[in-house]
Design brief:
By secondary structure, the protein is of the alpha/beta class. It contains 9 helices and 11 strands. It has one domain: Vaccinia Virus protein VP39 (Rossmann fold), CATH 3.40.50.150.
Length: 247
């Protein structure tokens, strides 16, 4: 992303009219209702309940409901319009959410608890710059939840995992949405890299594998630091979500 593209997207974001979720009346809604209200496709339905969503709500609740009233930091990579961030900031009232997206001009929602950064999360330089902006040391375990809902390109998924897993707290969850898309779409695949469903099995078995992105040192780390992995199929053919818990 060149300087002019970055400048243009930041300018569009600055001038675009956005909905401040902090001004919404106190909402005592379920996570599903919040996701639907703000238009997130993580829900069972979205866009005024006319379209089917991914159906991830029950899986988020299964693992994250216990964090509802705790003070937590959430990192969402690939936030698009900020719909799920808006829902999460209402469902987790003591949370701070950090949104990374390569094009923040799509954002429709803002909040004092939602921090938005225009950046390419797959780049090591951008990773370091982002952590520096939020005053977090490069190897610090800072986030309780990390959600990768970014490009869904296999190489990007692996690179983001490589960069950000270190910054996940002990007992935190690293979540990968729509991880089987590279299985269905050739343009999202990365030759000679393990697809995420295969990677999950390799990690469970602690079996070394060939990868130019996830090198031996990272593999050793993830074998030691993964407490459990659970994956689920959502409502559509390409709706799959994985929860990696760090020990």
């Amino acid at each position: 992303m060149n300087f002019f593209s970055l400048y243009k997207r930041n300018l569009l974001f600055f001038f675009k009219k956005k909905n401040n979720v902090d001004t919404d009346k106190k909402l005592n809604l379920s996570l599903e209702d919040l996701l639907v209200k703000y238009g997130s496709d993580k829900a069972n339905s979205f866009k005024n309940k006319k379209n089917a969503g991914h159906g991830y709500t029950k899986y988020y609740l299964k693992f994250l409901k216990k964090l509802k009233y705790k003070k937590i930091n959430i990192l969402e990579i690939g936030s698009y319009a900020g719909a799920s961030a808006a829902a999460f900031v209402k469902f987790f009232p003591n949370s701070t959410i950090y949104c990374l997206d390569i094009n923040i001009s799509n954002f429709k929602y803002i909040s004092k608890k939602i921090n938005i950064y225009c950046t390419d999360a797959t780049k090591e330089k951008s990773h370091k710059s982002f952590l520096n902006k939020i005053n977090v040391p490069p190897k610090s375990e800072f986030f309780d939840i990390i959600i990768d809902d970014g490009s869904h390109k296999l190489g990007d998924i692996l690179q983001v995992l490589n960069l950000y897993f270190t910054n996940l707290k002990s007992n935190g969850f690293y979540i990968i949405e729509d991880f089987k898309l590279p299985n269905f779409f050739k343009h999202l695949d990365e030759p000679n890299e393990p697809k995420i469903d295969k990677l999950i099995n390799l990690i469970k078995k602690k079996k070394k594998f060939k990868s130019k992105i996830l090198k031996k040192n990272f593999q050793n780390t993830i074998f030691k630091r993964i407490d459990s992995i659970h994956s689920y199929h959502g409502l559509s053919k390409t709706s799959d979500i994985a929860f990696l818990k760090k020990n």
